Amino acid sequence: PSPTTKRVKKIVLHPSEPIESKNTREGPCHFAITWEGSKKRSTMTIVAPSDKIFKGTKRDDVRPRSVSGSEDSERFVPILALECRGIEPYKFHSLGGEFFVTS
């Protein structure tokens, strides 16, 4: 890692637990951190399939969705979308029990 890189381990995000911002210009997010020497906070927000970021676009390739039917058989399907500002996640681990697989 470069001298400006800082690792934060074991961050747990939950879609029903947003963090409200003290700044009225920023909306709620699911994780926030202010890096040393920075005036602005960096944020991660879980993007729901119905969020306006996907409206009016042809972004179905990245829209998270439930996997169902034969159309998704043997294909990678997005299950999570994050809007990141000032943060670059490099790993993802599900905690178990969040995803249900049926066949």
TrEMBL record:
Top-level taxon in the UniProt lineage: Eukaryota
InterPro entries the UniProt entry points to: CXXC_Zn-binding_euk
Protein name (database record): Uncharacterized protein
Lineage: Eukaryota, Sar, Stramenopiles, Ochrophyta, Bacillariophyta
